[in-house]
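Q: Convert this sequence to structure tokens.
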Amino acid sequence: MASWYDHPQYFDMVFRDETAAEVRFFEQAFSRYAQGTVRRVLEPGCGSGRLVAEMAARGYELTGVDLSQPMLDYLARRLRRRGLDAELRCEDMTCMDFKQPFDAAFCTFNTFRHLTDEQAAIEHLRNVASHLRTGGLYILGFHLIPLDADPECTERWKAKHGGTTVHVTLKVIDFDRKIRREMLRVSVKAEKKSGEIERIRSEFPLRIYTPVQARNLLRKVADVFDIAGIYDFDYDIDEEREFDNDLTDALFVLKRR
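A:
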């Protein structure tokens, strides 16, 4: 069973339509919430690097961290093609080590939920905080599970680029509120211009957060982070959200104390 993280070209196609809205939000949040100029930016869990490349193209100094070497290799090739530069590291995002502080960091679209226990989540948040200057921002986005969530969730996407069409089905195959973990199965069917069809299926766990559980987690790092703003995956800087049970697609702007 191959991991779709070993096929970054397909992974990238599925999420690339979100890039423009995310990057626009980042820059608006920098302007509204950060103290001082934002120049050095970190993305833990950068994956195929669509955001690293776009932010680098806008003149920021980017560092991308990921555990998948195929993803980082894909990103390195992408940067070379575009004549861009960024520091890339293959390492755990709970124990990153940098000599110079960053002005901002971001981690969106559920990458954070790959940290499947409380200790790892807190270690990550504190590790990011330790590498942000005072007044710097961490933009953190992940889905929250409503109390009436359907554990039988299935989602489907279709994306096309360069003559290749990718069909993706994401299915929750196990859901356990007690241990706060769901197991996802991602099935990919790639139809290439040549007529070749490639199929990939991978399974991985994600940590479950209700709004209350997310609030409790952020309280445990309140000595290093303030919640400067709360948004959702619409990425509308003028539409702040309440931290309540209706918040499901959560986007937190955390500010380093």
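The chain is about 25% helix and 35% strand.
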